[in-house]
Design brief:
9 strands; alpha+beta; seven-stranded mixed sheet; 426 residues; DUF2851; DUF2851 family protein
Amino acid sequence: MREDLLYYIWRHNKLPTDGLCTGNGEPVLIRAPGTQNSLAGPDFFNAKIEIGGQLWAGNVEMHLKSSDWYVHHHEADENYNNVILHVVWEDDIAVFRKDGSQIPTLEVKRYVSDKLLEGYRTLMDGSRTNFINCEKDVKLVDAFLVENWLHRLYIERLEHKSKLIFELLQTSKNDWEAVLFMLLAKNFGSKVNGPYFLDRARQLDFSIVRKAVNEPLQLEALLFGHFGLLSVEECSDSHYVQLQKEYEYLVRKFGLDGPSSKPDFFGLRPMNFPTIRVSQLVNLYRENYNLFSKLMDLGTLEAVYKTFEISAGPYWEAHYTFGKTSKPRVKKLSKKFIDLVVINTLVPLKFCYAKHTGRDWNEELISLISELASEDNSIIKNFDSVGLKTQNALESQAKLELYTSYCTKNKCMQCAIGTQLLIRNT
């Protein structure tokens, strides 16, 4: 049993319309359940409830046991002074406000039907599944409801990604170009080196990158050195030596802090080696002046692909690491990699920039992300296997949000799919 069930019962009017009584025997009539609160404070605001013939307007708090009121120290919190009804599964103790007045308590378990409880237990019985609680029944949910829910979940995912972006914006003193650079560094580092690249990018004053953009050798030396790729032992390769000397000069000139660690190569395919990715990042900035402004103005996926038609530098056509030659190959950014940049950097950044400037780009962003193919990972494959087929990147991103924020936390009563299944079964 979770408090989520109490919220569901209250929000969806699953209690009888008459015959309700408080623990003290006063009749209760719910005129309006109020608005659910997802932040700190009482669970429902602005409810209207008739208790003992007197109409009250105020807030409603919910707990599994009434004694949880004291466990959470609500008796000392002024935010709970306007609670007009305490809704609980089990009324095990009288509860009082900070001023000493008793709060009417409604014990829900006396009024909930066995059918609803059985439906809830069936839905929450995760022990019978290997992936999500509702995997046996999810395909029965109306497709229109699922589509709308996935759109909402995608916006939730963008909101979650916004937290990092606005944090970077604050620390960079509202420099959107610097924020883009940090996010791209994280993207180009991939899962293995992304956190390391982001951390190093945050430590680099972007004004130095701006100054080096017009000096190709300086920009290459700056990024290779700053991301820990110029500390190869006993390497006499001429290109490596040239970059190392240039980086040493930049360190002295700008007072840079050199890296204390190196990115990982182990377990990566050669095309994902940090050397290749940093060279591609260098060339992206070489070929695109004011990259942030350019990306914000792009309205089509075709224009995005054209902007990211980038390869690693000429040296890397015959190398994957410094000093070791390989079969010649042009190391271009793949369509799949660019798609990930769009998903993880471009669309979230556009979303935040639109919020910052008061623009409405939601329709454009939804259209852009919907054109991309679905991501390919175990979570998406599992959703497909239980009947929720994934059509595009919007749906795959939404399902990742669904899985991490709802399914794994058993928040079925906060999920449109879960509540629909419970309604269907009761």
